[in-house]
Design goal:
The protein has 181 residues and is an alpha/beta fold. It is built from four helices and nine strands, in the order βαβαβββαββββα. It has a single domain, classed as Rossmann fold (3-Layer(aba) Sandwich). The strands form two sheets. The chain has a six-stranded mixed beta sheet with strand order 4-3-2-5-6-7, with helices on both faces. Strands 1-9-8 form a three-stranded antiparallel beta sheet. It binds 1-O-pyrophosphono-5-O-phosphono-alpha-D-ribofuranose (PRP), manganese (II) ion (MN) and magnesium ion. The site of magnesium ion (MG) has 3 residues, from loops. It catalyses: IMP + diphosphate = hypoxanthine + 5-phospho-alpha-D-ribose 1-diphosphate; GMP + diphosphate = guanine + 5-phospho-alpha-D-ribose 1-diphosphate. Residues 16-161 form the Phosphoribosyltransferase domain. Its EC number is 2.4.2.8. It is found in: Cytoplasm.
Length: 181
């Protein structure tokens, strides 16, 4: 069976993603001019967005990655954020921009933001490609948002269902029959 057969609908196409990411990169470039910025991608979901976004940020930034997991193989969050890989860099007095693929309950980012603030970063901001505000259970301030998405099962462009579909080049909704069987 082809991967496309599990796609319900394409919500955000490749061209639209590229254009919005270009705008976000420009905004971030202006906001962090002359500042020591570390852009931190949250793996695995943010991997595709991160690599496209940083190419649209001008200036001498650094990058780092964290691996965290709140869902595992389940489709619902467990509420427990596990740090599987922490930052390599010392972030004292550095400006941190956390890059995420999607904010759902807000648990992952609320946890990470507090965790990094406690490590004496100069500032911690969040850039997410997608926001699903109707699912929020933990309030978290988000400075950069690519798109708002409806309460559907989202896949593609880094976002998985049971570790599959991350390689789709667009954002799509998943067919009900796939996650209800
Ligand atoms: C997903 C997604 C976000 C988080 C959002 O990651 O990539 O990181 O959940 O959910 P929340 O707002 O309810 O915390 P996941 O834990 O599935 O790991 P992954 O990025 O490796 O898929
Ligand atoms: Mn994730
Ligand atoms: Mg996941």
């Amino acid at each position: 069976m082809r991967i496309e057969d599990d796609v319900e609908q394409i919500l955000i196409g490749e061209g639209e993603l590229a254009e919005r990411i270009r705008q976000l990169g420009q905004q971030i470039t202006e906001d962090y001019e002359e500042k020591d910025l570390i852009v931190v991608g949250i793996l695995k979901g943010a991997s595709l967005f991160m690599s496209d976004l940083i190419r649209k940020i001008e200036g001498k930034i650094s990058i780092d990655f964290m691996v965290v997991s709140s869902y595992g193989n389940a489709s619902e969050t467990s509420g427990v954020v596990r740090i599987i890989k922490d930052l390599d860099m010392d972030i004292t007095d550095k400006h941190i921009l956390l890059v995420e693929d999607i904010i759902d309950t807000g648990l992952t980012l609320a946890y990470l933001k507090e965790y990094l603030c406690n490590r004496k970063a100069a500032s911690v901001r969040i850039c997410t490609l997608l926001d699903k505000p109707c699912r929020r259970s933990k309030p978290v301030e988000v400075e950069y948002i690519g798109f708002e998405v409806p309460d559907e099962f989202i896949i593609g462009y880094g976002i998985d269902y049971a570790e599959k579909y991350r390689n789709l080049p667009y954002i799509a909704s998943l067919k009900r029959s796939v996650y209800e069987k």
